[in-house]
Amino acid sequence: LIHPTSNKVHIQDPASQRLTWNKPPKSVLVIKKIRDASLLQPFKDLCTFLTEAKNLMVYVEKKVLDDPAISGDEVFAAITKKFCTFREDLDDISNRVDFIICLGGDGTLLYASSLFQESVPPVMAFHLGSLGFLTPFKFDTYQSQVTQIIEGNAAIVLRSRLQVRVLKENWEKKDTVDEKGIILTNKDLETSHKAMQHQVLNEVVVDRGPSSYLSNVDLFLDGHLITTVQGDGLIVSTPTGSTAYAVAAGASMIHPNVPAIMITPICPHSLSFRPIVVPAGVELQIKLSPDARNTAWVSFDGRKRQEICHGDSITITTSCFPVPSICFRDPVNDWFESLATCLHWNVRKKQNYLSSEDEEF
């Protein structure tokens, strides 16, 4: 932005984005990592605090409460009766939740993101997992930290997501019979394509699957063929995902406030194929090359893996629905703290101080 009088360029401070409530929050979704005994007591303590002390309506996934360690707790059972439960892919909670609390590692936040295909409530993520790059809060002082969030006193970072559409060629060529035996026309299938859309927080991965041949896929940008990827595959990631699979494949790390999409080849059979960063507004399309020897496979944040055949296409754009991630301090400090603690970025043994006596030798 250029100031009308000074002609100076003003860049928005990433730390200036703050969480504010139009009215006090009334409901919260608690996401707990499944099959992790170490999270049972934190989960019970947090839910009791939210229900009894803060008088919030707590939403919990049904399979979490089905855990015998939770369902068998008679004391906690009185609390769980006040919860609202839901089932993934069956119940829509998109307009019922004011904010989200995650207990676990980075995968827990990715899972929470996948539950919301449009607008996502603010997410507060506690580090109770193995990595913790996306989970800046420690559980030791959860009561004061949750209270602060409820009061609306926190910085946020808007983590962009990718909107991904998978189009299968055989859907468009002929009528199809669904699982109930009803014939679907092309018009019906056009509508069903909307169900094949995915909101991705980290990355879309296209790989060669079980085949021993190189993957051979064409990459288009805004309708123009950019290159053919020959290797193990391709990673299309958000800035948030740049520190996940992409960085392991040799990509740079991008702060989540940067509006960009990163394209990273996986073991390309070319010495000059370096990862590239493109503007967030472009549309990418990935197809099998006409002369590809085998099919490819695609996954979305490591989930819902499926095969891509000749004639199929994957379209990727920046989503209109980012994930508002609540910061422990602010977007810049939290990010560099994660680089240092999780990836040990630029950590090395320092050289000893050189005295004047040493200089003589």
UniProtKB/TrEMBL annotation:
Q: What is its EC number?
A: 2.7.1.23
InterPro entries documented for this protein: ATP-NAD_kinase_N, ATP-NAD_kinase_PpnK-typ_C, NAD/diacylglycerol_kinase_sf, NADK
Q: Which UniProt keywords apply?
A: Kinase, NAD, NADP, Transferase
**GO MF annotation list:** NAD+ kinase activity
User: Is this entry keyworded Repeat?
Assistant: no
Q: Which family does it belong to?
A: Belongs to the NAD kinase family.
The molecule here is called NAD(+) kinase
Which species is listed as the source? Answer: Poecilia reticulata (Guppy)
